Amino acid sequence: MSVRKEAAWxxxxxxxxxxxxxxxxxxxxxxxxxxSLALQDxxxxxxxxxxxxTNAASNANAEQxxxxxxxxxxxxxxxxxxxxxxxxxxxxxxxxxNMLKRxxxxxxxxxxxxxxxxxxxxxGLNALEALESHSNTLIYKKVVGIIEQxxxxxxxxxxxxxxxxxxxxxx
Length: 171
Known about the structure:
Layout: H1 2-15, H2 19-27, H3 30-40, H4 43-59, H5 62-71, H6 73-79, H7 86-107, H8 109-121, H9 124-131, H10 137-150
């Protein structure tokens, strides 16, 4: 496990680099392996893999970003929104926000909508909604911003006043 964790950590530095470095990660199948490990390995390994995917998504060109998303990076990032570590949640939120934002601006609004749909399908939106009550103010603010910007927010139901003449109780 520690070798996988350290390897993912080293790769996160590479993924924070140039588009050329990100392309090597993609061409060598490393991004697909990172997604796989992020979804099913030990927590420390998963966290480092998500950090790496977040770095790659933040620096990728449109084609690279599409590859990362199609490979499952959104689902990998969302999988750590339910952990108990505030720093990991913050990293995951940053990565998710970047994927949602950049998929719209670099690729298309339609692709951005499909990314939001992926978040919903993998229960990421449920995790985001649960984080709205997180005790960390920064996490709360980030979550509210993501939900308001990328997901349809249900308005509070209007309270309908019942005229006294229709009331069955007389107080």
